[in-house]
Write a structure and sequence with these properties.
The protein is α+β, with helices and mostly antiparallel strands. It has two domains: 77 residues; 208 residues, no CATH class. Strands 1-14-3-5-12 form a five-stranded antiparallel β-sheet, with helices on one face. The two termini are 63 Å apart.
Length: 286
């Protein structure tokens, strides 16, 4: 017994309706409808439609699979898969996670240099010349993007905050091959120049970006100046960083530290050391 042969096609209102006057007629040489007979014609029409729809379905499945791959790749470029904060001073590492749907993707790096320390204060006999300490400068912040490959490891040096009157240290991001990608300069330590002069110092030079890393640099500013004169003044506050406020000035005991990369507060009310600047940090989003 032979089967009808599909011929993919779709014709609107194209299924033959058997009339009451039609006689039962099967396939045979010389039979109507090209030899299949009137009784087989509606089945042939439906078989042709089914073959047509089956072909379209396979095409759609292939297109959907391709589209899903493209969507996954796009999400890999612009979607947020994860976040990591690296705040410990010294050499640290980040390994780009591996995903089954995308091999490479865009990562956002935010790195901040260590803050500078606040300056000392000098106290003399009440009513005589007196200088309170200035606040330390904040470390620069770099925000940029880089195309990364899953499994690659990036090293970085998180800059330490400077002690009293000392500069902070740079935060540096390195490529897997050891090349420098970005360097966020530290904040400067406040200058205690004499018993009558104390000045805040801003971000030091040295911030830089290197291809293929692309982004921009936020240099931040300097800490507040100390006060001088025949009075007991208030010290300068440490400069705020990208992440928040710096350390406020203090009398004899340093207060709670400021945000990542912010400057240390200046000392006042007697002879004392300035507050330490805060260590830098790196934040990675992908």
């Amino acid at each position: 017994m032979a089967n009808l042969i599909d011929s993919p096609s779709y014709t609107v209102n194209g299924v033959y309706q058997i009339a009451q006057t039609d006689k039962v007629e099967g396939a045979a040489t010389g039979a109507s409808f090209g030899g299949i007979g009137v009784s087989n014609e509606p089945h042939q029409n439906l078989a042709n439609r089914t073959a047509f729809l089956y072909g379209r379905q396979n095409t759609n499945i292939g297109n959907i699979t391709t589209l899903q791959g493209q969507v996954s790749a796009l999400l890999g470029l612009v979607g947020l898969h994860g976040f990591q904060a690296i705040t410990s001073v010294g050499t640290q590492y980040w390994t780009a996670p591996t995903y089954t749907d995308v091999a490479t993707y865009l990562a956002l790096f935010i790195i901040t240099g260590g803050g500078g320390g606040g300056s000392n204060s000098a106290g003399t006999t009440p009513g005589a010349e007196y200088a309170s300490g200035a606040g330390g400068g904040a470390g620069a912040t770099i925000i940029g993007t880089l195309q990364v490959t899953g499994g690659e490891t990036y090293s970085m040096t998180i800059g330490a905050g400077g002690g009293s009157q000392s500069n902070g240290a740079s935060t540096i991001l390195y490529a897997p091959n050891g090349n420098t990608l970005a360097e966020a300069a530290p904040g400067g330590g406040a200058a205690f120049q004499s018993a009558t002069t104390s000045a805040g110092v801003g971000t030091l030079a040295g911030s830089a970006l290197y291809a293929p890393f692309s982004g921009f640099i936020l240099p931040n500013g300097q800490g507040g100046d100390g006060q001088s004169g025949a009075f007991s003044g208030v010290g300068g506050q440490g400069c705020a960083s990208f992440w928040g406020a710096g350390m406020r000035s203090f009398a004899t005991v340093a207060v709670s530290p400021g945000a990542y990369g912010s400057g240390g507060g200046g000392s006042y009310a007697g002879v004392g050391n300035g507050g330490s600047g805060q260590g830098g940090a790196a934040f990675i989003l992908w």
